[in-house]
Each structure stands twice: as structure tokens, then as C-alpha cells.
Amino acid sequence: MNYYETLYIVHPALDAGRLKDIITGVDDSLKKMGGNPLAVELWGKRKLAYFIDKQKYGTYVLVQYNGEGKCTSNFAVELEHNPNILAYLTTSIEKDKVIEQEEDIETQIAGKTREAERSEARRGRGKEVAVVETDIKESDAPEIKKGDKSPKDESEQTDSSTEERDADSTEIKAETTESEDKENNSTEDESTEETNDSEGDKNVDSPAEEKSDVQIMDEVSSDEIAENEENTTDDEASGEKESETNQEKAEDEPAAVSEEEK
Amino acid sequence: MAFISNRRICVFCENSDQKIDYKEFKTLRKFITDQGKIIPGHVTGVCAKHQRHLGRAVKQARNIALLPYSVDPRHF
Description:
- The complex is a heterodimer.
- Chain A is α+β, with helices and mostly antiparallel strands.
- Chain A is built from 8 helices and 4 strands, in the order E-H-E-E-H-E-H-H-H-H-H-H.
- Chain A has helices spanning 16-32, 69-80, 105-147, 151-202, 207-216, 222-230, 232-237, 239-261; strands spanning 2-10, 36-52, 55-67, 85-93.
- Chain A has a 4-stranded antiparallel β-sheet with strand order 2-3-1-4.
- In chain A, helix 1 (16-32) packs antiparallel against helix 3 (105-147).
- The longest helix of chain A has 52 residues, at 151-202.
- The termini of chain A are far apart.
- Mean pLDDT of chain A is 69; it is low at 144-164, 186-212 and 235-241.
- Chain B is mainly α.
- Chain B contains 4 helices and no strands.
- The longest helix of chain B is centred in the last third of the chain and has 16 residues, at 48-63.
- The mean pLDDT of chain B is 90.
- Classes of the chains: A alpha+beta, B mainly alpha.
- The interface between A and B is small, with 12 and 11 residues.
């Protein structure tokens, strides 16, 4: 008759009831294999030194028993096929190292659950304290912002200033484009006016040139419009001449623009 | 400056109450490096007999995830 002890790790997700069932089931299987369980010690949930089956934590349970050497191998097979047990280690011990079990499994599980709850409560208090500290800091922060410019405000101001700058730049671009268009239009108008004046100087008596002058004046007076209506008959007659003059204008305009650009 | 003798004395030979067991992983941590390697006996001063027991206990503790097999030094 030899003395053995087996330390096995139970899955951490199991609650107290399932844990008790598993421990009792392991004891029953040990008895079936011919072993005699002497003591069961629950270490509780501990952090593993490395991941086992993707689990960071595990519940350690120590079982000490005596029996023949054959029972350990059968017991190992039983633990191997249990999906709730992550790992196990069986070692032979001397009779002096057997633990005197003082508490039952239920009381041990209850005590471990209480310890776990207390530790969680402490962690929760720590978190609450941390949250309170953060809240205090946040409450103090606006007061500081009122007096002095905080870096966030500065950043916001910089953002707003950058946006304003962008808007200004877009407006400036729009103004520049408009001014360029205006300049081009003005140059074109000037060139047209110049060409019209030059043509008017050349052909004073032609009615078509009279109408062109009226168009430049933008129909200022109704009398002039009436005069133009009277002269429409003459304009129709001189339509061919107008087309010729317009072609001449179109030819002269780009030349005038190019001269001004130079 | 205090006199430091070169003679090394095994901790476990001096203190017979301190036993080497894989369950006492807190004491075993003194005899492994931060990377999880077993420190040789000529560094720690442990005698050959207890160094053997230490090595066996450390390997058993590694098997049941009480001690790490290896630790990445980048995680220090």
C-alpha cells in the first residue's frame, strides 16, 4: 500500500455546485479504481503560469489517497478523459505528508467562494475609488478651463482657426477666380468697345453701327429704342453688313486680349 | 564593509525545516531566473543533492502550471 497525491486543475468557469459534483465524481472514480481517498484540499482559483486549453485561470484541487500502484494509472486515464480537468500531476508521498482534513469539501468551497467575493469587492472598491478620482479630476477640469486656456481649447481654437483659414483661402480663391473672370470679361468688353469705336469711326453712316452703339449703351432710353425700332427696317437690309462686322469683331477680340496680356 | 566569506553553505542543509516540494513554488521561485531557467547550484550555493531535488520539484511545478516553462524577456 503506497501513498499518493494528485493535484489537478478544474476548469475556472464552473460554479460552486458543478465544482462539488466534479470533486465528488473524481473521488468516486478513485474508489472504483481501488484507491482510498484520505484528504481533499481545495486551493481555489489561481492564475496559471501559462495558458492551458486557452484558459488563464484554474481551480486547483489536491487529493491524497493510498492504494496499489495500478490504481494511479487507471485514475490518470480517468482524469485524462474528463473534459473539465485541464491538467493533473500524480506523485508518490510518504505517510507523514498526508494532510489531516479538517473541513468538508462543501465548507472549503463556500470559504473559497467567500474569499473570491471579498477579493472581487476589494477590486470593485479600488475601481470605484479610481472612478471617483477621475470624476473629481473631470469636475476640476472645467474650472481650470474657464480661467486659463486648456490645451484642448487651444487645440479647438487652432482647429477653428485652421477651418477659418481654410474658408478664407477658399473665399480668396473664389474671389481670385471671380476677379480673373471679371478681368477677362472687362478686357473682352474693352476690346469690343474699342473695336466698335474704331469701326464707328470708320463707318459712321452705316445703320448697323448705329445699332451696335445702342447695344453698348444698354438701351438707356426708350426714345433711342424707338429710334432703333424705326431703323429696324434699315437693319434688316443691312443684316449682311452686321454679320461681316461681327466676324471682324471676333477676329479682333483675341488679338486685343493678347496685346493686353503682353 | 562586512567580511564576506567565499564559502557557500547550502540553504537546505542549514535549515532542515525548509523542505523542497513542488507545491512550495514560492520558495522555488528563488532558484529560477526571470526567464524561468533553473539557476545552477554553483551560483546559488545549493549542494548537489538538494540541487537535484530542486530541479525535480521545479519541473513538477512547471508541469502543473505553478511555474512557467519560459518567460519572454520582452515582457519584463
